Amino acid sequence: MNNVLENRTWRYATKKFDSTKKVSDEDLETLLEATRLSASSYGLQPYHLMVISDQKVKEQLKPVSWNQSQITDASHIIVFANTTNFGEELVDGFLKNTSKTRNIPTETLKGYGDFMKSKLLGLPVETKSNWAARQVYIAFGNMMQAAAELKIDSCPMEGFESEEYNKILGLPEKNLTATVVLAIGYRSEEDATQHLPKVRKSTEELITYI
Question: Which InterPro entries match (predicted)?
Fold first, then answer.
């Protein structure tokens, strides 16, 4: 089995973390950089990541996370928050960054900028937020797989009260809302889930070749 498949077979949704083991700063930096490099629609990245290691904050989040132990036992909690609304500033910021990164005049990007604005700015606020949330999941999936490559365990979590997270983390003031959470760290030897076979649809059931 090649490394790509080995890593995906190795990872599982860790239910019980070893609270004594912490992800190193170096590995955390690599994990976050891999996530930063993720693709997104138009390259706009309409989201923000909150990296939480403060135990007091994790204790605050646990009751509004269905009291799941991963929140307090994991090394870090990564909260992915999508932009709830945006205007021209999202596209203009991207164009400015592109101009600086690629050393090209901003004026040469006007056509592309106008195209993006024509497709996005007229959408209802709810549609904008849903579109941004879909971009989150691209980065989220990349983080899980990057973690597996680093042999860092993870647990994807949607079982939490988004509005309470927003209050605790002050997200509305930043035009953000909590979308999904990833707990990262190292599996406990007591986590029986790690020994269970991975259950997935068969290739024949899942895939159609045309």
Answer: NfsB-like, Nitroreductase, Nitroreductase-like
